[in-house]
Amino acid sequence: MRTEHAESHTLTVEEVAARLGISRTLAYELAKANRLPAPTIRLGRRLVVSRLALDRVLVGEPAHRDATCSDTA
Taking CA 40 as the corner, what is the angle to CA 57 and CA 22, rounded to the nearest 5 degrees? Predict the structure, then answer.
């Protein structure tokens, strides 16, 4: 019997590439140069990206929320 797992909070570079509509090779090149639109997290030899950070970028928000900024202006 197979159980459903909750969505992961991180995405692989390959998954990021698919969501951005770019090649896997380009995604790895951008990750290596620290130029993906969301920061990468290194876990040993593995690179992952926060799903939340990428989702924020894709809807037009910054990947990081600056704690010193307020939402009211």
Answer: 60
How far from the centroid of its chain's Cα atoms is residue 1's Cα?
31
What pTM does this model have?
0.74
Could you report the per-residue pLDDT of 5-61, keeping only the tens digit for each? 578 999 999 999 999 999 999 999 999 999 999 999 999 999 999 999 999 999 998
Assign residue 26 the CATH number of its domain: 1.10.10
Q: Which pair of structure tokens corresponds to residue 63? A: 């990947």
List the one residue out of 33, 34, 39 whose CA is nearest residue 64. 39
Structural domain boundaries, residue 38: 10-58
User: Residue 72 falls within a domain, yes or no?
Assistant: no
Query: Count of domains in the chain?
Result: 1
CB 53 within 8 A of CB 13: no
